[in-house]
């Protein structure tokens, strides 16, 4: 097995990516003679129509795989993978929007119950509901009445279901993105 930027064909010829040749030429221009890398033997590749590559010597070669992509393309691959995941995630969130909306509505009811039972301002009641629903539990605000405690326990249970649903959607979106990526879409 050779370098990631070289390809071998059945005739024994070695072909190098153009960017590798250019980087070698740039290093040769500035490097002392005893530090110069060896010049690759084989031809430069140029793209042709139909997805093949043709060497300057005339032999054809199939398009390189993603692992042999140019450095700029390799840098953009994680971003495109993330965008594929994000599109799947948003599509699946749209699919479960009713359940998520119902859970958020129930968390809002818990916040109103805390506001009424504990005499908290709306902002503090929403804050306590969010902290409890996400199972963070800072402890800076705590319910004192039995109804407030029941509302907090209910918010915690609803919050666990909410977070679990979002994690399940993210897991499914990631699985779909990996499957689409492996199929070459």
Kindly state the percentage of residues in helix.
55-70%
Radius of gyration equals 29 Å
Number of helices: 5
What is the averaged pLDDT score? 76
Order of helices and strands: EEHEEEHHHH
From the N-terminal CA to the C-terminal CA, the straight-line distance is 27 Å
Strand line-up across the major sheet: 3-4-5
Q: Runs with pLDDT <50, length 5+?
A: 4-11, 36-66
How many β-strand runs?
A: 5
**Estimated structural class:** mainly alpha
Query: Which range does the strand content fall in?
Result: 5-15%
User: What overall geometry do the principal axes of the alpha carbons give?
Assistant: elongated
Main sheet overview = 3 strands, antiparallel
What's a quick, concise take on this entry?
The protein is mainly alpha-helical and 185 residues long. It has helices spanning 18-30, 71-95, 97-118, 122-133, 146-182; strands at 6-8, 14-16, 45-47, 52-55, 60-62. It has 5 helices and 5 strands.
Structure, explained:
This protein has 185 residues and is mainly alpha-helical. It contains 5 helices and 5 strands; from the N terminus they run E-E-H-E-E-E-H-H-H-H. It has helices spanning 18-30, 71-95, 97-118, 122-133, 146-182; strands at residues 6-8, 14-16, 45-47, 52-55, 60-62. The strands form 2 sheets. It has a 3-stranded antiparallel sheet, with no helix packed on it. Strands 1-2 form a two-stranded antiparallel sheet. Strand 1 (6-8) and strand 2 form a beta hairpin. Helix 4 (122-133) packs across helix 5. The radius of gyration is 29 Å and the shape is elongated.
